[in-house]
Every structure is written in structure tokens, then in C-alpha cells.
What we know:
This protein is α/β, with parallel strands linked by helices. 54% of the residues lie in helices and 16% in strands. The strands form three sheets. The protein has a six-stranded antiparallel sheet with strand order 2-1-4-5-6-7, covered by helices on one side. A six-stranded mixed sheet has the order 8-12-13-3-14-15, sandwiched between helices. A three-stranded antiparallel sheet has the order 9-10-11.
Amino acid sequence: EPAREEGNMLERLIIRNIALIEHLDFELGAGLNVLTGETGAGKSIIVDSVNLILGERANRELISSGSQKARVEAFFNINGQDGVKKQLDALGIEYEDDTLVVMREITASGKSTCRLNGEIVPLATLKTVTNTLVDVHGQHEHQSLLSQKKHIGMLDNYAGLPVAELKEKTENLYRQHSEVVHKLNSGFLSEAERERRIDILSYQINEIDAAALTVGEEATIQEELNMLSNAEKINSALENSGENISGDGGALEKLGSAVNSLAQIAEISSKYAELYELLNNTYYELEDGAYQLRELRLGYEYSPERLDELETRLDLINSLKRKYGRTIEDILKYRSEASAELAELTGSQELRDKLTAERNRLAADYCKTAAKLTEKRKEAAEDLCRRITEQLQELGMAKAAFGIIFLPEDGKLHANGNDDVEFMLSANKGEPLKPLSKVASGGELSRVMLAIKTVCAGADGTPTLIFDEVDTGISGRTAVIVGERLYGVARSRQVLSITHLPQIAAFADCHLFVEKHSDSEKTKTSLRELNNAERSAELARIMGASAADESAQKYASELIESANRFKLKVSELD
């Protein structure tokens, strides 16, 4: 059994109306999944379907004859794929039970619809999310290894702790240097920009200070404006109220008369005394209200000049709010922050000299550390090239040579150091090293990828690898070695290999068989998992033997048994 844990892989694939496939729904397990079948049965169609899920170009010719649309759905277990989860979180896409369902539908009219867990997304988004989940290696590859930008990361992962420690130190020095430069220039690229910022801040601070704002004054202004705007109404109400209460024949005069009348009978009964007390107290309260009305009338004066003054003040406050904040508190906070920034911008020459010296020291330390990082990377690159070249030779590319070139520096400081690299290959003796992206042969390229994956197992973290035509141009012992390598990679990854060789198929943890069926109307493709007896028969068929060829069946069984012994031996070494 493979050593990898369940999860972090492509668990299920559903294909509808793609070429010969009307409807295919199958599951993939952990470890090495092998796909075999007759030529033209539809094995490449499955790879094309996966490429659709990965955001590759949709060819309308893929749609089955007579159908208007085709669809592919892939179910991924994203347990441990934190990068993918962060992308989904950023997109607002929910995922339950660590499951990501990727769907792509293409129509005969050329329309393409992409969904992630049911949510429609642009094709570019689908491609970005699935980019780290699957690598397809073959003639129509979707390969992270062909992306030059990712080569430095793979080299660093292979180099291990010595490079990791220097990378961390380099990144810290780069960050510290950037912070000092930011302080020195106050976040600007030039002295001219710094001076312009000083002028702007000075103007803003002076403008706010000149306004002499007070927290809460808006409410006071609004209240006074409301009174001035209702001057006539206020005057009329105060005058009428005062006349009705304290004027001739007003309420106060009549209530006083009533109180005097009750005073004459208060001693006769306690009830009269209580009523007298109540009305007498009311009289004094009403008299107090009359005094207040009189004072309000005497103290209130309408002033058009005051109204204009208040409106002008409110306009000024609103103007400052549009520039610096929604409230007076926000404006004053902005003023405080601007003052602090201005103080930093106009700091003393002594501080600037200190920051300059610190910048130069950090730059020197960075250069020393980055140089050590380059040295370690070059040591790792030399070893990596040697090991991958050995793997290629064992995989049947006897004259191949693998190389890593260090690209010219740009003279700038970078968080990752001064280096940028590119993986190179010479497939034949006498040929110069060329970038991997220039290698033309699909099968040859698949073997290069298999060699790299074998040496750099776990380096890039891609959970699912698909190898198409990895066996092109090989046979015999080399084919057995390819099978061993595929199984070795599949112990930490999920691998799907499409093969024509029994030596490779013998190493399968799960053997899937693709076949086509024809009737009077159409040809269809189906897929099923083979049991042990069926596997021997399929390996014999791949050899070109008939179903009745007992010697071929026996040899096929021996291949499977030999592969199982190898797998057991590897497991015992863990």
C-alpha cells in the first residue's frame, strides 16, 4: 500500500459529452493509478478533460458529435492545501469537508462557464486556484515545472535547511533595509516628493488650526440656527404665553383670586385646607413660569448678522469634513497624525545621518548574506543536476544532461536574494542546454519531469501528478525502472499514469481500463477498475498476446508479482 495519506488529491472525475465519452464517472485513489486501453479508446480524452478543469484552452471540437455542450467536474480533497483555502476565502467561496468541486462547461457556440463549489468564476480565477493542485506531464502539459519563476523555489526546497536559514536571514535584512529606506525618504522615492509632502502637510495643519475647532460645537450651532430660523414663531409664542399667564385678567390673576377665596375656608375642613395648599403651590409655580417667560422675552434678540455668522461657520466645518473626516473628532485626529508625519519629515539632520548609516550597514550585511545564499544554491544546483542527469540516463535517456543556469543579477535588493535560475536540458549528446519549455517531445518531457519529481520528491507540494506518454521510446529494463520511479513518487503523491507498457502497469495500486464500444449508431468510451485476474489479462493484451496465450498470461502475472515484491521491499525500508 502507498505510504501517502488519503486526501490532498483528485478524488473523482465526471466527464459528459467529451469526444467519445458520453458519460464517465470514476474515482481515483491514493498512490499510483494506471490507465491502459487500446489505441483510440479515449485515454487522451481523459487528459484533455483534466486540462479543461485546469483552465486550458477549450476546443469546441472536443464536444461530442450531436451535443451542444460538454461538461467536466473534478472533486478535490484540499485538506492541507492552505494556499488554495486562502484563495477560496478571498473569493468568498465556502468549502465543506475540505472538498473543492471544480466544474467547467463548454458549448458549441464557444461559451465557457467555470464554477468553484457552485460559484461562477472567471476562467483566470479557475486556472489560478487549480494551478497548485495538479500537474499534467505530456504532449498537452499543464506543468508548474515549465514555469521558470518556480524553479528557484524548487531548488531551494531541494537544498533544504542550509539555504532555508540563509533565505530567512536575507529576507529579514531586506525587510529591515526597506524599513530604514522608507523612514529616510518618509515613504517617497525622491527628495522632491518629500518636499511636496511637507508643503501639503503644513498647509493642512495650518488650515485646521485656523479654524479653531471645538468638539461638540456643531450641535450648538445647529441649535442656535434653528432658533434664529424660527425667530418670528418664537417671539409670538413667548408673547402670547406671557400675556395669557401674567397679563390683565390672565391665568395668574384668576388663580390668585381662587387661592384667596379658599384661604377663607381652609380652617373649616382639612379637605379645604389640602385643596388650598395644592392651588397655592400651583400659583407660585405658575408665577415662577411667568418670570421665566419674561426673562426669555427680554433675553432673546433676533440678529441677521448672527445668523450669517453661524451659517458661515457651519460651511467652514463642512468644508473641513469633506477634506479630513466625517466628524470634528476625525478632523482633529487627522491633524494630530499629520503633525506627527511632518515632524518625521522635517527631522533633524542628525537623525537623517543616523538612518543613512543604518541603511548602508544593512545593505552591506544583506550583500554578504545574499552572497552566501548564492554559494549554497550553486552547491545544491550542482548536486541536483548530477542526480537528475543520472535519473534521466536510467530512464532511457542515455545521452541526456540536466543543467541549472543562474540568470544575471539586476543590481537591486530582493527578499529572496540576488538569484534567479532556470532549469535546462540537453536531450542528446552534442546538443546545447535549452530551457525545459523548449523540449518538444511529450514522452521525453514526461521522463524529465519524472526524474525531477523522483529527486525532488515533495519539493513543490503539488498533490496530484498525471504522466501521459512517459513510456514513449523505452522498453525492457528501462520500462521497469520507470515503473519503480513512478511508484516511488506515488508514495508521497497521487499519480495517474497513462501507459502502453506492461512493466509500468504492473506497479499500479489501482489499474483503470478504458475501452470503446460501437453499435449501429455511435461509438462510446467506458472505464472500469480491473481486479487481479483482469490485470494479468490486460498486461498480456498490452504485450500483443491473445487471450488464450498462457505464456503471456504467466509472464504478466510474474511482472505483477515482481512489482509487488519491489513495493513490499520499499515499504519494509521505511
